[in-house]
Amino acid sequence: MPELRRDPIVDRWVIIAENRAARPGALVNASDSPREPTTAGLETCPFCPGYESETPPAVFALRGHANDPNASDWRVRVVPNKYPALVSETASQPDRGTYVPRSPGPESLFAAAPAFGVHEVIIDTPRHVTTVGQLTNEEFADSLTAVRARLEALRHDLRLKHAIVFKNVGCAAGATREHLHSQLMASNLVPPLVAAELRGAERFYDTYRQCVFCRMIDDECASGERVVDQSSAFVALCPFASRFAYEMWILPKGHASHFGSINDGDLADLANLARRAIARIESLLRSPAYNLVIHTTPFDSLAIEHYHWHMEVFPRLTIAAGFEWGSGCAVNPVSPEAAARVLRTFDKGSASPGSR
Amino acid sequence: MPELRRDPIVDRWVIIAENRAARPGALVNASDSPREPTTAGLETCPFCPGYESETPPAVFALRGHANDPNASDWRVRVVPNKYPALVSETASQPDRGTYVPRSPGPESLFAAAPAFGVHEVIIDTPRHVTTVGQLTNEEFADSLTAVRARLEALRHDLRLKHAIVFKNVGCAAGATREHLHSQLMASNLVPPLVAAELRGAERFYDTYRQCVFCRMIDDECASGERVVDQSSAFVALCPFASRFAYEMWILPKGHASHFGSINDGDLADLANLARRAIARIESLLRSPAYNLVIHTTPFDSLAIEHYHWHMEVFPRLTIAAGFEWGSGCAVNPVSPEAAARVLRTFDKGSASPGSR
Known about the structure:
Helix content of chain A is 25%, strand content 21%. Chain A is of the alpha+beta class. In chain A, the strands form two sheets. The first copy, chain A, has a ten-stranded antiparallel sheet with strand order 3-4-6-8-7-12-13-11-10-9, with helices on both faces. In chain A, helix 2 (137-154) packs across helix 5 (264-284).
C-alpha cells in the first residue's frame, strides 16, 4: 500500500508507492523493469471506446444516449487509476489509523502513514488524440466539466482536504498512455506547492488587502509584455519567474479562488482560450511534451479573498539536472518576455482543431 | 546576462539564463534549437587532453610534472563553465548594483537582480570515462581534492555565501558532455533546499541539542535496514524518505558540517566508499543516468553543531510528471528498504575499476 513519509530533516513529504513500479515504462533502465518501447497505440488502447472493461469501472461519465457509464457511448469518462499513488482506506484499509505522521523527535525520527486519498483518470475524449490542441473546444469543455463535477463530489468527503488535477502529455512529461487524459489526486493533505502559494498569497493579502494574483493580472494586462492571449474572462501569460522555458499560466481575470465554482459560460470561455493558448505552444515547439496543472483552494476554504485558482502549463524542453534537484532553484534558458513575444505570433494553433 | 527572479507569490527563486539555450542539446524539441544527436565522442571532446584550448583557461589543476595548468599533463582540471548560469560581476558587470531583489509589494511585484556568482567545471580525469564507477579510487580522490581546494579558495570571496557541487551523469540526468565532470556553483544566496535543511536541522538541535544527521546515522547503522555500504568513517544509505528510486546518501559518521574541512585520510576513505557504493547502483541498474550533489554549510558558518555535510545520489529512472511538479511532492516506486537490500547484494561494482 502506498505510504506517505516525512523527511526527518526538512518538511518534505514523499509517497512511496511500490505498486507504481508495475506501470508500463515506470522505470527507465532498471534491470528489473525495462522501459517499454513506447506508449500503447490504437489497437490496444484501454482508453478507447470498446475497451471499457480494461479499466476499473467508471465513477463518472458524460454520456450521449446510453444509460450505462461503462458503455461505449460516452464523451468523457472518469475511472480510478489502475496504479494509484494514493489509496482510499475504505477500499484497502478497514481501520482508520493515523493519517498524518508526527513531527520528528528523538524517539520517532522516521514518521510514516498510509498515503490516503483518491487517484482518478479523466479520459478527455473517446477519440484517440494525444494533445490538447487536437481537442475541439467542446471536447475540452466536456473534460473540464468532468473535473468540476469530480471536485464537487469529492469535496463532500470530509476526510479529503484538497485535490490537484494534472495532465502529462508525452513521454518526457511522464505520460505512460498516449490517449489524452487528465488525472485527479485528492488527499487529506494540501500539496506543498499549493500550501506555499496559499501562505504567500495570505501574507500579501494581510499586508495590502489585495489578492496578489489579481494584482499580478492587472499589472500583466496593463504592460502586455508577458501576455500570450486573452478572452473576456481569462488571460494566458508567461509568469515573471517562469521555471520552465515557455511556461504559461491561464487565470480568470475576475477574482475566483475555487475552480469547482466556475459557471458554464466561463467554463466554455476557458476551454476555448486555454485550448488556443496551448495549441500555440504545440505549434511553436512542434508537439513538445508538457504538463498541465490546476491549482485551486482546499475543500475547507473554497471561497477566500486571497487565493486565485489557475492553470499552469510546463513544456518539458529541458532536463532538471543536479543543480536544480540539489538546490531547489530552477534554471530557465528562455525569458518569459521572449517566450510570450514568440507565442503571441504563433496563432496557427488557433485554427479549427482537426486541421493538424 | 543571467538574472535571478523572485516569484511574486511564493518564496521561489529562478535563474533566467538565456545564454544557456546555446548549449548543445539544451532544449529538446524546440524548433529554434533542435537537440543534438548525442553528447560528443572522443574525437571532439573538449575535456580530453590536447583540447585544453577549447575550454576557458583553467582556474585550478592537479598536475603531473608540467608547470602550465593549461598543458595536457594534468590529473584534474577546473575551468569556468562556457555557458554559465551565474556570472561574476567583475567579469561582465562593473557596477555592483543590488544583489538580492526586494520582497514583493504593491509597487514592486516583480523583483529581479543579476544572477551573481561563479560557475565552474571540474574535469574529474583526463581519461574519457563516463561514470564514477569507471574512475579509480585515486582519480575520484583527486577530483574531490580539487573540489575541496575550490571551496577553500572561494570561501575567501566575501561576496559569496555558499557553493553547491554536483554531477550530471547521462543525458536523462541533464549531462550535455559525456566526459565525466562535476560542476560547482557558488553564489551570494544559500540554495533553497540547503536553506531548508539548515532550518530543519537547527530546529531539531534547538529542541534536542543533537545534530539530526548524527542521530539519523546512529539509528540507521543500528538497524542496518537501509544501509548499503560503510567504511570506518563513512556510511552509504538509502534515506527513509527517498524521493527517487535507489536514492543514496553518503555521510561522514563523525560530526562534520563543512566538506572543505575534510582531511586527506578521510578524503581517500570517502573516495573509496563512494566510488564502490555508486558502482553498485551502476551495476544493478545497468549504467543509469544519475545526479550527485554535495550539500555543505554556507561560507559564513563553516563549523556548526547542527548541520552535517553529505553527498546525495539520485538515479534518474522515473520522470517527474505533472503531479510532482504541480504538487511539490515526490512519488517513489521503490521503497528505500528494498533498494538498500538489493544494492547490498550488488557488489560486482566493488571490483577493481577498469574491469567494466
